Automatic annotation (TrEMBL):
This enzyme's EC code(s): 2.5.1.78
Keyword Transferase belongs to the record: yes
Protein's recorded name: 6,7-dimethyl-8-ribityllumazine synthase
Positions with a binding annotation for 5-amino-6-(D-ribitylamino)uracil: Y27, A58, L59, E60, C82, V83, I84, N114
Superkingdom, natural source: Bacteria
UniProt-listed SUPFAM superfamilies: Lumazine synthase
Job of this protein: Catalyzes the formation of 6,7-dimethyl-8-ribityllumazine by condensation of 5-amino-6-(D-ribitylamino)uracil with 3,4-dihydroxy-2-butanone 4-phosphate. This is the penultimate step in the biosynthesis of riboflavin.
Length: 181
């Protein structure tokens, strides 16, 4: 299946290697293995150090990332797994809740690349997971790396409130630093 062509950013460059945790749900083992393979290759191309943990399913991926963000020393995370539509609404719950949880963590400043596939059938998953095809695992790793790069860039800056800390200022009613009583 041919997809629309799209622009892909070059991988960011790092002064020190970022630490990435890949959290994968290997429910569909072959799909998960391909996602991990693609993510690892992209991370290694950027010079990142990678650890991998497995969790039972897509709903556990955000929980594991939240735990690691609190308790471990990683710069970013790659969420990987696959949800294939079935006969019940469970598909919608898993897709929506895992995605929502990852998004909320991202909004809190956690650098996450979301590579949890949500597809109609196994063939769609195979095409998207293939490192030589759509390489969605690699894309998720690249997304996490770009967010890490931004967080490092912005962490070096101080957010001011209208003046520089080295500037002197007076509160109304004060002269030369002493209060008028």
């Amino acid at each position: 299946m041919a997809g629309a062509s799209h622009y892909i950013l070059d991988l960011p460059k790092f002064d020190s290697a970022p630490r990435l945790l890949i959290v994968v749900a290997p429910y569909y083992k072959m799909i998960a293995d391909n996602l991990v393979s693609g993510a690892k290759a992209v991370a290694e191309d950027a010079g990142a150090k990678v650890d991998i943990v497995e969790v039972p399913g897509a709903l556990e991926v955000p929980t594991a990332i939240a735990m690691a963000a609190r308790m471990a020393d990683y710069d970013g995370f790659v969420a990987l797994g696959c949800v294939i539509r079935g006969e019940t609404t469970h598909y919608d719950t898993v897709c929506n809740d895992s995605s929502r949880a990852l998004t909320l963590m991202g909004l809190d400043g956690i650098c996450i690349g979301n590579g949890i596939l949500t597809v109609e059938n196994h063939m769609q998953a195979e095409v998207r997971a293939d490192p030589k095809g759509q390489n969605k695992g690699g894309g998720a790793a690249a997304a996490a790396l770009h967010l890490i790069s931004l967080s490092r860039k912005w962490a070096r800056r101080t957010k001011g409130i209208g003046f520089k800390p080295s500037e002197s200022f007076r509160i109304a009613g004060e002269t030369d630093g002493s209060k008028n009583a």
